[in-house]
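User: Quick sanity check before I run a bigger batch. Here is a single chain. Can you write out its predicted 3D structure?
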Amino acid sequence: MANSNNIWYVTILLSAIAGYCDTVTFVAAASMFSAHVTGNFIVFAYQIIKGADPQAWIKLISFPVFVMAVITGGRIGSETGKRYRLLFIEGLLLLISGIFAVFVRLYFIAGWGIHFTAMMVVFAMGLQNAFGKLYAKETYGPTTMMTGNVTQASLDLGSFIFSVFKNTVSLDALKKQSITIAGFLGGCLAGALMAKNFGLPALIVPGLLLVICYLGTARQAASQLQ
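Assistant: Done. Predicted structure follows.
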């Protein structure tokens, strides 16, 4: 993945993947949020008052799935020196979910296949959230929830402006928050485009990206030990 000098790389990679996955599942899996899972409560409530079919209740399952993922991530990520293992597992889950989505499309599996795929992505995003909490210093901020980042960026912007553009600490913090927000937005745009054209199989892309980055980092670390 990255060393301590490349926090920006890990930040933009993870925020882009979160935005990408959240948008792909929303577009291609019946308006299901995979990163902002509490948003599913709102969609569920809306669909219920609109007289939606019983499948709307499936959105509530995303919450316990997410909780189980975070608990699992906490156990896996607690081992010293294995922090990036969580992201490797996340990558594998996304890759598997994308491949599974291909079979769902090819063999016309019932709607449960789409929901199951979405839940795998929710679990993957739960692992990423666990990583962010366990290793907060590995990124510039949360990579899956942007409301807090936008709030902090706004505070930093205000502080910089009212200091007559002299508060370099606030400016530096604003730049870091901008990396996270821009990465997420870029991921959302890419996810929307890919989901429109390919559906849930588009999840193969972030899965491959995470796995390749992890293996590349592991290979580099091994060569440095030799």
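The CA atoms of residues 22 and 35 lie 5 Å apart.

User: Great, the batch can go ahead then.
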